[in-house]
Amino acid sequence: MNPYAKLTFSLSLVLGTAITISSNHWVAAWTGLEINTLAIIPLISKSHHPRAIEAAIKYFLVQAAASTLLLFSSMINAWHTGQWDITQLSHPTSSLLLTAAIAMKLGLVPFHFWFPEVLQGSPLITALLLSTVMKFPPITILFLTSHSLNPTLLATMAIASAALGGWMGLNQTQIRKVLAFSSISHLGWMSIVLIYNPKLTLATFYIYCTMTGAIFLTLNITKSFKLSTMMTSWTKTPVLNTTLMMTLLSLAGLPPLTGFLPKWLIIQELSKQEMAVPATIIAILSLLSLFFYLRLAYYSTITLPPNPTNLMKQWHANKPASTLIATLSSMSTLLLPLSPMILALI
């Protein structure tokens, strides 16, 4: 791709995100979301592979439908209340339509079908953007309207997302699809606590972005796209694969790693709100996700390939040192001792 075109699309992503997260008017927020959608589509389809083109078309259709629903929701609210302010969402029909639109944009169950397919057809760096940056504006809109949303509907969608994300990830061999279902599962955790503690949802999202960023950037260096190539990547970068294993275990939510913190705080918040049953259900469902994270960690460092491969010769392959991966991996595994400071910010 032309560097100038790539720069234009990257700046458009930043601009669209900034417009959405800083706006109070529905039309301005919708404009930012549309800029984001139009900027990411060329990045998805830049390889010109049929799978990438298919992913770009699927992404465009879903996002266009979600944006239409969002605009329709804001128009109904403005018709009944005379308010175009995002925080003044008070009409129940508008609230339901908005929940459906944002769930479609994020890939929450039952609007999740597009997300694994689009991620599988995208390059790893674009898949990272789809899993993190592109979810920030919709989550911000949910944050601003959290007081108006239906708690029962959100809790139901959250538990369904945690269940389906864990269940569907079990039989995947493509790493991008595994990470897509992992994203759906984590979105369930964020959604269930959104109404009761929106700041905790944002903190969970930031920690999730850190861990996912470390994993995608590591996979991009080792060129691991499926489990079979992951088994041989340790011969190329043994140290990097060790940090990848730690980050995967952190994403699974195992103590004493960083990923345990958001799950701990969410279960604590749900218990305070007398939601012990949903908290128990979502905690048990996270065991499904834990299984495929452990399998990925097992393949990345412990399992040896069944036959000698040419990759065995690459013990001393020169790989560029990445400060960003080192920083993200450290944050993904070592932030739990700083939990008092994070709690103070929340």
Automatic annotation (TrEMBL):
Residues 23-288 form the NADH:quinone oxidoreductase/Mrp antiporter transmembrane domain. It is a multi-pass membrane protein. It is an enzyme of class 7 (translocase). The keyword Transport applies. It comes from the Eukaryota. The keyword Phosphoprotein does not apply. Its EC number is 7.1.1.2. Coiled coil: none annotated. It catalyses: a ubiquinone + NADH + 5 H(+)(in) = a ubiquinol + NAD(+) + 4 H(+)(out). The chain crosses the membrane at residues 56-76, 96-115, 127-146, 152-171, 178-196, 202-219, 239-257, 277-300, 321-345. Keywords: Electron transport, Membrane, Mitochondrion, Mitochondrion inner membrane, NAD, Respiratory chain, Translocase, Transmembrane, Transmembrane helix, Transport, Ubiquinone. It holds the Pfam family Proton_antipo_M. InterPro entries: Complex_I_Subunit_2, NADH_DH_su2_C, NADH_UbQ_OxRdtase_chain2, ND/Mrp_TM. GO terms for cellular component: mitochondrial inner membrane. Residues 290-343 form the NADH dehydrogenase subunit 2 C-terminal domain. Signal peptide: none annotated. Its main location: mitochondrion. It is found in: Mitochondrion inner membrane. Core subunit of the mitochondrial membrane respiratory chain NADH dehydrogenase (Complex I) which catalyzes electron transfer from NADH through the respiratory chain, using ubiquinone as an electron acceptor. Essential for the catalytic activity and assembly of complex I. Belongs to the complex I subunit 2 family. This is NADH-ubiquinone oxidoreductase chain 2. It comes from Adelomyia melanogenys (Speckled hummingbird).
